[in-house]
Write a structure and sequence with these properties.
Helix 8 packs parallel to helix 11 and helix 24 (496-512) packs antiparallel against helix 25. The longest helix has 28 residues, at 739-766. This protein has 44 helices and 14 strands. The protein is 60% helix and 6% strand. The strands form three sheets. Strands 7-6-8-12-13-14 form a six-stranded mixed β-sheet, with helices on both faces. With 1028 residues, it is α/β, with parallel strands linked by helices.
Length: 1028
Amino acid sequence: MNTEGYSLPDIEGTIFALESIIPSLPRFGRRRAYYLISLWKWRFYHYIQSGSKEQLDKSVLYLVEAQLLSVKPTATSILLFPVLVKVLFRRLVKFKQPDDVESCVKYLRYLRNQRCQLEVSVGIPHEHVTLYLVRALDIRVELNICDIKEDIREMTILCRELLNSDIPGSALESHLLTLPKAFYKIVPNMLPVKEVVDPLIECFREANVRLPYSYHLSYSLAHFLAHRFDENGSIIDSEEAITILKKILTFPSDLPQDRRSRLQDAALAGIAHISCGRFYLYHMPEYLEEATFHLRAYLNSASRDDLLRPLFSQSLVDFEEHRAVEFGVKEGGYRDPDIYKLPCLPSLAASITDPNSSISNEQWNQHLRALDSMRHTDDIAEIEEAIKYCRLVLASIHCVPSLEHRDHASLYAVLGSLLFKAFNRTGRLNCIDESIAVYRDGLKTYGISLAGSNALPLGALLSLRTRIFLHRREEDVEEVVQLLATLTSDDTRSGGSLRFRVSYGWAIMAHQFGHPSVTDAYENVFKVMQDTLSYAPTLESQHHRLVSMREGFQDVPLCYASYQIEKGQPIKAIETLERGRALLWSEMRDFRTSTDQLRAVDPTLAAEFEAINRDLEQVTMSMAPRGNMETDSWKTDPFGHLVAKQRQFLNDRNKLISRIRALPNFDNFLEPPSFDVLRSAALQGPVIIINHCEWRCDLLFLFRDSLSLITTTDDFYSRAIELGDRLVNARKHNRLESKKYERALRSVLQSLYELVGKPVIEVLREMKIPEQSRVWWCPTSVFCHLPLHAMGPIPSDDGVTRYFSDIYIPSYTPSLSALIASRKPQAEGQTFQKPSILLVAQPESLKHAIPEIWTIQRLTTTVTSLISRNATSSSVVECLKHHQFSHFVCHGNLEEGNPFNASFKLSGGRQLTLLEIVRSQLPTAEFAFLSACHTAELTEKSIPGEALHLTAAMQYCGFRSVVGTMWAMADQDGQYLAEDFYKSILLSNEPGVPYYERSARALRDAVKNLRSKKASLERWVNYVHYGA
């Protein structure tokens, strides 16, 4: 209304005059209605100029009375009602009175039903009424005076109707944006929102089609999708949300730079938040890489005073530490000093004064950061102060307008952890009891899962296990086992080392306390083991994971096998030990599994499987990228890209395996071998498996047609560890040719005979195994480091000094499967002709190498020589493909903690690494003699059962038999050993026996000759034979 030209005194005078007339007018009649309408207008004029609510209220009263006087529907009454609704709506927007909300909603709904009459008689567009109703419902949600979800549903329907109208974009956008604001009213009350958020998503998808470059509408759609992802874990929703947020960053805009920057930072923060959520929920490596990248992108863009910066900074620190733990990736090292600037607890506690007052997101972030910082304190006074503070914050969670589910749960986890710390510092039993009670409350409220806030169940496990060792309550044991079992069953939303550790914890706890779930627990942890290993993309990073979890990976097969033996199941124990050893070699061997039978049934499927195996093998054998990990593209850094490729290949391969297993007679494709398959390892001689486990130790004898078992003495476990330590310490602190080392080695061999050799020989004799027969050792644990082949001396009646290798011809195998594979016939058929030999030599730094080279070159067979500069890594690998035998005369290098960098030293400082050998495929390879140092040695940081050394690598890439060394060799022995060895192989009369199968006897005989030349003990014990 235009009130120009009228002063307040003029308006008040007019009102006074009109109100003086009203009492004299009849109660009913058109004249009274006319004056009431005039009074309404002038009171409204007054309100517009003065802003007085009293004037607006009286204006409404006059208008209501005028409307009531218009009993019959006249033009005036038809016009008055919409005007009344408009005035009420204006009062509602200004003063937000609950009565006005209800009246406006009711009247506007009525007007929407009078669509034709309004548009024809009054000229009020239907869409305008809809806009008013959306706003009225928005205010009703804001005042929280009705069913919020019902109002939001109605608002959503109205907005979708408006999207199909001609309403201008600006008005449409402003009314659509009432929906996200209304939605926030549901979230803090933790109301179920699925029936609300689904229509909202559909509505805002339509809105983004109508207004494709609206920052706010796009961001709102992404927010709704992210919320639904938080609710149901849908990766599709998270992908759509991230795609929308990335698109926002490319929107054209004429906005001021500072505002555009804020909107873009909000989009980056949204992407980072969703990426973090995906990793928290699923713990998959590709999500870890994405989250790390997007956190970096956000932090590189956001201002220093951004409210989310401290939390995201801490998340990036945590994720980079997680990368280092899981993959050994140490690049990055993000540190933001601001995340350590925390206010003191008393000042924060004082900020929570009114339990019903709202807490801002900024304040809440400060509370979370302060509580998180208390993880590192050990001061009991600070711990107790933090406990009081945490209880106060926990009582105030309902005051936070947009607190996430995992933040709720983290408070219980923090309080439980603080109480546990208090117990550790004071020994007060009530603290551990309170800690368990808090964890139970949190788990009851937020559920049991490794996804999201896993600090709750993990903290509960720690507190409960502590109380078990204090009181050994059966109910606590049962609760822990059930909690562990529940966590491990959550296999769709967990991964990585955490899931393995929980599974391992279940198995050990059940085993220790004789719980009925022992078998289920061990079977579960075996299922998890390979998934945990393939969590990392490369052999190098997989080995890092093995080492970081070595206790579990090393112990699980040994402990499970010991349990099965105790239950009278030695056959299952052998299957278990095979499943749990040489995991990396088994994984790589599976990549090269034969598809001949599959090709005969389905050539296309066989070709697809071969192709995906090649792709996966290439990624797995690649080196993890080093150096700068930053990137400016929307792709992750090089290591993250490697993770993504590996995960995609793994998923594709698993789908192919499922298709193959669906074929007739292929249901066991790539399943672990059964005992019926494994027993074939003993076709040419017994295999002795030593299970060295803290629960019990056993010697398992696998014969061609039978299986025997020796249960060892109670001190077997500790005596074996002492022998291993004695040998390692002697090598570490003494020169190999020193008298001290000689004495230590002699005592180890003697004790080893008493511990293992004597009972083994007794069983072999009882089983009528003739002397000079082949025998294979398949050791575990510490026995992988001990020279079982040289145990002795063995007491004899004739006074002749004999060792185990004098009575039987010993070989080693890292697994039964490796031994079986070494005997498989070649694709082109077995040949019994003299083998061609590739000689690889680096004589420059080896004083006695030349005589050994001459010895090989004079052999009565074809010899190809790659010496000095001619021996490059590429030329060696290429020539290996065309020779049956290979002989290396060079230095062997061993790198502590990184077995894939073990190498042969070539000319000019070049190296032929274990990884390069593994990458090779050598179809004609039969035998390799590694006359170099450390070629069969395991470092202290290696997992014994994995057999990650050069000898095993040669076996993996095709060589059926390999001679290696357990430590540094004396190069003067090479000439004599080689001469006797090859004379024995090439001149022996063994028709029908492949030359490579003669290598074990030849090595034994050559070593005996070396002993006869008075070589020191460590020089001849050094040589070992692997394979067929």
